[in-house]
Amino acid sequence: MKVSNVATKKKTSIDKKSILISVLGLSIIIGYVLINPKEGMNLFVDVRNTINAKLGVLFLWTGFLSVILCGYLIFSKFGKVKLGAEKPEFSKFTWCAMMFCGAMGASLQFWSVIEWSYYYADAPLGIESYTSKAAEAGLGYALFHWGLTPWAFYAVGTVSMAYLYYVKKRPGLRCSNVLLGVFGEKHTNGLLGKIVDISFIFTVVIGLACTFGTGVYMVSDGWAQILNIQNTIVLTIIIVSIISLVFITSSYLGLDKGLSKIADVNTYYAILFVVVLFIIGPTTFILNNTTNSIGFMVNNFVEMSLWTDPIDQKGFPEAWTMFYWGFWLGTAPFFWIFATKISRGRTIKELVSWMLLAGITGTLLYFGVISNYAISYQLDGTYNMVESVATLGADNAISTFLTMVPGGLFILISWTIVASLFLATSMDSGAFALASNTQRNLKLGESPAKGLRLFWCIVLTGLPIGFIMSGAPIEAFKASANISGTPILLVYLFAIISLFKWFKEDYGKKSAHEIEVEFREPNVLIDVGVRNVQEEVAAAREEDKI
Questions:
Q1: Where are the alpha helices (DSSP H) in 255-320?
Q2: Is the pTM of this model over 0.90?
């Protein structure tokens, strides 16, 4: 099925209907939670549990399939396809930093401290809780939930959108565009596409609200301990306002002068922070248990990916793996758009391999160092993280733990700064994606309007404040984010089908060598389906001879 480029003749415009419907719907959700916080949370949790019970297995298989597809995209002939004729816009370091910081956010910091403790107290795979094996499995499972599969969701979806944008030269970065290969122009530009784009706005805003809410609570508790004051809603809202000011300013400045600079600083600072903890911490234990946990994850990867616990039915897959896959899918579309925008000039192989490398390396560094530091304190009796999370709450348990390491106050201050930068980069990239999705026919090299980006920055600030003012617990954030991933699951599967239809249509009959040669031509703008590149090059050479 050919993808028309007729839309290039249209002027860019704002999709006001999608914005209006989405903002109205989100306002109703916020209003309901503000008026009925407990009922709202219970509703979110009930819906989340129902979704995981009915569709959880589909989430698991989709995650497993995504990992396999990444290997195929890297090693098949299609990996040689270049996404745009131009040279890459950003250096590899800045490119990887923007992807990692934009995708992971402060949630990475939050869960790197405590996630292992849940698995230690309620061990998976039939392992006995509170044992040495449970401690080993704790980090292995955390690496699994934050490593290869989440980044595979991001990578495969990005390839589909980037291929359409750069190779098929379809203007616009709307989420619904990835359906073109299956449903064609009529339905994609009609009611179906509108529903998908509105769903995209809901999922991204709610998913980022979850990330923002999780991180802000943690940062707020950190500053309360640093300043020796009470952690109140007022303090939390002040912190939200400060972080919002940072990412609103960054969004106004644009990718080159704003987000790319913050991402670089964020990445350098985060690496330095982890290196310091590695040096002052139980270095040998960190190295040994990280290595052991990687082995545990690799050895059990297939079982972990497809484990449903059908006999004992203790609820672990539903509470964790299925939740995480729903969360990653819920936030994935904004990343597809953002990563597409910053990946011009990369081959598909380069895009997938470096995206996976950046994501997995960052996860290993953070979880390997910080989780193992906390595990060592748990095992030697210095600090009981399991008990502290249960009695003090996750945020206070994290802050208390950080104050106990050597140079505790300095470490806690650095921690809150890094978390704030992570939050700013995530929200900025989210606002960029939302603006791109709601501005029609965005052309190659064109960024969405500043006013539209700022509008979405304000929306992304408002929803977390609404949840915070309602006093909704973190479980409400988690449940709402998990729910938001369900409609995107179908969009993602259609995006995969579209991608492989385009592959077959454009390069099915060409060898790997022919594809590689085609993209070596420095002055050829690829426009597959409209003209035959090789014939034009040959004709030009004949004219030169004459």
A1: 260-280, 283-299, 301-306, 316-319
A2: no
